[in-house]
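Hey forum,

I'm writing up a methods section and want to include a predicted complex as supplementary material. The small molecule is glutathione. I've pasted the protein sequence and the SMILES. Can someone with a working setup run it? I'll credit the forum in the acknowledgements.
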Amino acid sequence: MALQLVIGNKNYSSWSMRPWLALRASNIAFEEIFIPLYTGEADKKRILGFTHSGKVPALIDGDVTIWDSLAIIEYLAERFPQARLWPEERADRAHARSISAEMHSGFAALRNECGMNLHRPVGAIALSADARADIARVQQIWSECRERHGKSGPFLFGPFGGADAMFAPVVHRFRTYAIAVAPDVRRYMDAMMSLQAFAEWTSAALAETLIIEKFETV
Ligand SMILES: N[C@@H](CCC(=O)N[C@@H](CS)C(=O)NCC(=O)O)C(=O)O
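Reply by user p_vandermeer:
Happy to help. Structure tokens for the complex are below, copy them as they are.
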């Protein structure tokens, strides 16, 4: 039975984007189940029919359900070792997991002030000191990885992997909010935007017409 990934609106759902990208960039076959977010009770019930968390993403693999983006990526890494979602070396793997967990649990100011919204016209906004600190920390994480692994490929640990999937929505946030970035960070963003799976998600998001008013504030 094919894997099923339950996701929300591609334009807004940064959490959905992460495991979707991990699957697509790794050429793992899956069925996509789209449920529009924040439309009311009926769609919320549909999400609850897949996961009691009531949130997307959720991955269904037969009788196993995995909810939460990072848990899904961990599951995929175990289930499809050939996809090499985590680096081979233990120290690099620990590093990749540390930055992925840091992304997963942190950067609240950046997330709140620069919500993912792909169809938003590109333009800068005034940001709080906390958001600016988040942006500096993300750039530090990416630069450190690129400095260490630049020779093995254009992504954080060389080839595309789970850590890249976790940070992918930030590439869109930096792009749409016209964040000034260092040249090595720009090169990483360019590599991400050239990735077929990333481009595929982006064009599908831009084709969506559903608007979530509360995410259209800036
Ligand atoms: N920590 C979760 C966050 C999931 C989450 O907050 N999903 C949002 C959409 S991006 C959601 O499903 N919201 C719908 C709702 O709360 O009704 C993860 O990493 O997957």
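Some notes you might quote in the supplement: The first strand starts at residue 3 and ends at 7. The first helix runs from residue 14 to 25.
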